[in-house]
Amino acid sequence: MSYTGKYIAGKVTVVTTLFGVLVIMFGLVVDIPHAGNIARANTAQTSVTVLNTPPTWTNDAQESPESSTSSPTNVGSAVNWVAIANDSSGDDYYLLICKTSGAPTANNLAAPTCAGGGGNQWAVTGRIASNATATASYTTQVGDAESNAWFAFICDHNANSYCNVTNKQGTGSGASPFAVNHRPTFTAFAVTSPANPGGVVSWSSTSSDSDVDGTPDTVKLFVCKAADFTGSACGAGGTWCQSGASSTDPYCKYFVPDPYPDAYYAAYGYITDSHNFPASGGSQGSQQRMTINNVTPTITAASISLLNTTGSGPLTLTVPGTTTPGFSVQFTVTDHNSCQTASGTPELKNFVTDVYRSGITQAGCNSAGLFNANNCYAGQINYGTWNMNCTASSTTCLGTSDSDEVVNCTFPLWFYAESTDGTGIATDPPNWAQNWLASTQAADDNGASSTLVESSTGNELNSFLAYNVATTSISYGGLQPGQSVDPVSKITDLQSIGNVGIDQTLYGTDMCPTYPACSGNATSTIYVNDQKYATSTISYASATTLLANPGATLAIHVQKSTTSAPTIKYTYWGITVPGAITLSGDYIGQNTLIGLTSNSSTW
Q1: At a CB cut-off of 8 Å and minimum separation 6, what does 510 contact?
Q2: What is the DSSP string of 533-588?
Q3: N or C: where does the chain have the smaller number of CB atoms within 10 Å of the terminal CB?
């Protein structure tokens, strides 16, 4: 007969009609006489089918890569386990990673579950072919502990699934538990600016890390110039500063170069832990900009030079009766914000230069109302054709690393600007013991202005003897022999168009109809000494006799001009036609007037 037993998972069912494992039982045959019959023993063939066996470990489960206190897995990243299992029936298998060591539950034709349910599961793979590598993954969470034990199991995929209850926990650095690295916290970010060039800017943070397994985590602060943090360093925008490792609240400092442009500079704060795991949220990536103060430019007295039109030597006027252009004041302006702004435009914008005779003093020539072309050229104004033009030399500014810039101010001087040369002799100017000085001032693009600084050395302004005689002829009119122009009344003018007082040397020639080839004959020559001159209309007899070259000096005392209108004085002339003249006609001669510097007491 046949008997079919109940299928019980994991049990052996004995059958007599199905192919299976045949079990042959041998017994001892004994003939026992019984009631005249001979009894014989028979044999019975048996079989059994082993329905399923669990997979076996080929390669024990291992973290890959390791997740340890020295190399923890960041929150949000995966912990991976690898293993290889073999199933004798060729079934696929599952790699199951549990939080407990209790035997898992095999689920027919489905993934197994950890003892105690899904809450105790770290990870499970899909179906993996026998002898193939299985990789299970778990993405770590914020709420995970730092240290997390794990137990690996393998179960097959079968209608009667079965699990290998021997768990594995890895070996070496890839063994249980796995370590989770949590993000540091970053709740506040602050800066100490503003600061001056050459000063220090500090950024501070309120930040920490709660992980303490193994060696407690530390935190670092990075302050970036742009919002380009890579996770472990500032990006291409550059770094203001970064701290060392700190148990809490790291800070760092930036030593501001000198010079450095005044501006607002973006600064972004980032925190990472010992494993270069950045903070998230809070103050991470927030901005606390660096402010560099605007500082006032300065000028040193020794840097100021008052220069002639040629760039060297004393100041020398060369144009009579108007202005001589091309004088200059050169000086160096120092600005600790550099000579160039952060955006590449000029830092220094406005300049003032006053030029004056030293006796006037800086206080006597520092505003527009004090302008006087004799001795005070106040640079704040334009005066007629006089104009102070100041420009910064672009070639002397080397960029934001350069604090100095040379400024050149050009200006003209009027012909009557007071001279200061000489050694004190009578014809030297009254101010020979003085010189000319310059005071300068500079302002930056924010309007911050230096003080008005006077040059430590000056320059002399040379005396400029310049004059003009507008009268080009002396016409005595028609006279009979023996007649005179009496009183002397014919005039010539003498104009001062330089910066000194003037006298004049006068001399003349004989007059004749054939001038300049006069014979000297008394009947056809009016001799030079027949002419007389004076500084006013006086009688012919009282006037001074004109001489031949080199003549004589007339102390006419034309005063130095003090305005753009020349100072003028006149010479009065008279003549007597000798009675010996017998030849009528036009008599022509030439008188010469030569200006010379008069004693300064008459200027």
Answers
A1: 518, 520, 525, 526, 527, 528, 589
A2: EESS---GGGSEEP-BTT-EEEEEEEPPP-SSSPEEEEEEEEEB--TT----S--B
A3: N
Q: Report angle CA 17, 23, 29 to the nearest 5 degrees.
A: 105
Q: Which residues contact 524 (CB under 8 A, 6 or more apart)?
A: 512, 513, 518, 581, 582, 583
Half-sphere exposure of 368 (CA within 13 A, CB side): 8
The answer, yes or no, to whether the previous bond of 516 is cis (omega within 30 of 0) is yes
Residue 597 CA to residue 428 CA, distance in Å, equals 9
pLDDT-based confidence at residue 51 (cuts at 50, 70, 90): confident
* Cα angle for residues 422, 423, 425 (degrees, 5° grid): 95
Looking at the fold, whether 342 and 270 belong to one and the same domain comes out as no
Report which of 477, 481, 436 is spatially closest to residue 583, judged by C-alpha positions. Answer: 481
Per DSSP, 495 falls in state: E
The stretch 187-206 carries a mean pLDDT of 97
**Any idea which of 12-21, 85-94, 383-392, 432-441 has the lowest mean pLDDT?**
12-21
- List the structure tokens of 359: 């006796």
Assign residue 113 a region (left: φ > 0; alpha: ψ between -120 and 50; beta: otherwise).
Answer: beta
What is the 8-class DSSP label of residue 183? P
Structure tokens at 224: 């970036």
Residues 71 and 122 in one domain: yes
The reply to whether 316 and 443 lie within a common domain is: yes
Do the domain assignments include residue 170? yes
Domain that holds residue 31: 13-49
Cα 595–chain centre separation = 61
239-243-244-246 Cα dihedral, nearest 10 degrees: -150
Q: What is the mean pLDDT of residues 148-162?
A: 97
| Alpha carbon distance 430, 419 (integer Å) | 8
Q: How far is CA 204 from CA 230, 235, 270, 435, in A?
A: 20, 20, 11, 58
Residue 91 has which token pair?
């079934």
pLDDT class of 48 with cuts at 50, 70, 90: confident
Amino acid at 101: S
Spatial contact of 579 and 506, defined as CB atoms under 8 Å apart: no
Please tell me whether residues 265 and 319 are part of one structural domain: no
The C-alpha atoms of residue 599 and residue 420 are separated, in whole angstroms, by: 14
CA dist., res. 592 & res. 502, Å (int): 15
442: region left, alpha or beta (phi > 0 left; psi from -120 to 50 alpha): beta
Burial of 93 (0-12, 13-18, 19+ CB in 10 A): buried
End-to-end CA distance of the chain: 162
pLDDT at position 511 over 90: yes
- Residue 395's contacts (CB-CB under 8 Å, 6 or more residues apart) are none
Instruction: Give the total residue count for the chain.
Output: 603
Domain boundary (292, 315, 331) is at 292
Residue finishing a domain among 292, 311, 330? 292
Q: Are residues 202 and 288 in the same domain?
A: yes
Look at the pTM and tell me if it is higher than 0.70: yes
